[in-house]
Amino acid sequence: MSVHLSDAQKKELAEIAKRIVRDGRGILAADESSGTIGKRFDTIGVENVEENRRQYRSLLMSCDQSVKDSIGGVILYHETLYQKDDSGKLLRDFLKERGIAVGIKVDKGVVKLMGTKDETTTQGLDGLGERCAQYKADGCDFAKWRCVLKITDSTPSQLAIDENANVLARYASICQMNGIVPIVEPEILPDGNHTLEKCQEVTEKVVAACYKALSDHHVYLEGTLLKPNMVTAGHDCPTKYTPEQVAMATLTALRRTVPPAMPGVTFLSGGQSETSATQHLNAINAADVLRPWALTFSYGRALQASVLKAWKGKAGNVAAAQKVLLHRAKMNRLAAQGKYNTSMEGSGSADNQSLHVANHQY
Ligand code: 13P
Predict the structure, then answer these.
(1) For a designed S-S bond to 24, which of 20, 126, 149, 333 qualifies (C-beta 3.0 to 4.6 A apart)?
(2) Predicted model pTM
């Protein structure tokens, strides 16, 4: 018997996707693996043990109720989904109470593709259907799977483009069969000295391949979200581009490759500073071109860098750190509506420092 999504399943998926990105809302990506959060903790001198991870994620999830006006979904790491705060309340219940969708990272990291120049695919398909069914039962409504592509003189190779597009489509179809909205994330790393034009060309190729594969796998686009990189020059490119140039290159690449049936583009921050990530998002939403999807944020580093700095692992700093999170979320919500300007930042909260990590892992 053939397997198709029922009308009721499609309706549920489409509603979840739309709800996450409605009215400028975006996503907090708090799904760093235990190794990756350790690198963030290193910067503030906090030891990477489960108790500190629990304290930090409690801080994020129990932020003031009004965060729900800016954040439509939070992506969690497996460990966090089952953690409780000091009073014994499940952290995910804070999100449920606020009407924020609970997301879960389901990939199992990158592995090398033989015969390529350090290119990768992403693993985690084995048992994914069972894991998705369990996550749905445990309150998750969406998932994330990150694929990584690299720009050099000879990459991304056609093999890497095709393999990553296919695995993203396969993951997306498994999620949808289990009532979970898949975030499709083909991240092109900002490492290198390539120009804005080069990044645009590669982004078009990669995103086009993803939508071909999603179509081949019968994925229901209305019940998905796309999480791409913004089109930016390489981190070491000597030419600097304005936010308006980044916005036009990004919009051009997406308008050429992303079907309007897909409801929301939720950009990763990719090592941009908090201020650049917000300014670029605003320029994208202020540009005078037809944009058939919501264009919003799904930031990890660019929503958390100044929160971590404010917290420093001290219980006495929790309230101040939560204020910082609320502020950054609000600034990004305004940017997702094209209504942000730097004068709204107030004194000293936005972080101008590059958050670039070479060959970034998640
Ligand atoms: P950054 O915003 O830190 O790039 O991370 C977002 C993310 O979820 C990458 O998978």
Answers:
(1) 333
(2) 0.97
